Amino acid sequence: MRSVLETQSVSWAQSVKIALESEGLHAVVLGEYGFGSHGLLSRVRVAVPDGEVARARAVIIKITPRFTGLLPSWRIQKRGLLLVGSGIVLGSYSTARFGDPGPGPLTYALAGIAIVVVVAGFVLIALGLRQGTDPGPNTPRGAA
User: Fold this and answer.
1) Phi, psi (5° rounding) for residue 45?
2) Which of 64, 66, 74, 130 lies at 20 to 30 Å from 21 by C-alpha?
3) Is the pTM of this model over 0.90?
4) What are the pLDDT digits (tens) for 14-41?
5) CB of 48 within 8 A of CB of 26?
6) Which residues pair with 7 in a beta bridge?
7) Mapping DSSP to helix (H, G, I), strand (E, B) and coil, where does residue 108 land?
8) 50 vs 42, 57, 70, CA distance in Å?
9) Residue 72: how many other CB atoms lie within 10 Å
10) How far is residue 4's CA from residue 70's CA, in Å, rounded to a whole number?
11) What order do you get walking across the sheet with 28-30 strand by strand?
């Protein structure tokens, strides 16, 4: 038996085994129940007989998902997340300044800016989610 796949995911190893068996290949999952099989440093392997290695690797290549890149909405959502984080930091700072004796107008201005920045961040996140959706074939142009 020769190992054709090494992974940390037991479910991926089982999926590969099922795909290999559906192609008529004999496959075995090794290390599925070993010590630390669900830990960070664990390894699960899928093995096939020596004569079936080439066919097994072809099947694994066929079923392995391809990385398609980031969604277009991520550019907007990333800016929204940065704004939310910045607003939280700014709000924390302004909240700490309220403990000072007699908070001045700068403290109130920082708190107001923090609120506006957090709300703007959530709006960008929501717009990014909306951009990532498909309006469907029955939606008129410009309606989405």
Assistant:
1) -120, 150
2) 66
3) no
4) 999 999 999 999 999 998 876 655 556 6
5) yes
6) 44
7) helix
8) 24, 12, 38
9) 10
10) 29
11) 2-7, 44-48, 28-30
Q: Which residues contact 53 (CB under 8 A, 6 or more apart)?
A: 2, 4
CATH class in words for 2-63: alpha beta
The candidate with the shortest Cα–Cα distance to 84, out of 127, 129, 128, 114, is 114
Q: Rounded to 10 degrees, what is the CA torsion of 125, 131, 134, 137?
A: 140
The candidate with the shortest Cα–Cα distance to 4, out of 48, 41, 65, is 48
Which tokens belong to 76?
Answer: 């907007």
Q: Cα separation of 131 and 106, whole Å?
A: 37
Tell me how crowded residue 52 is: count the other CB atoms within 10 A of its CB: 19
37, 97 in Cβ contact below 8 A? no
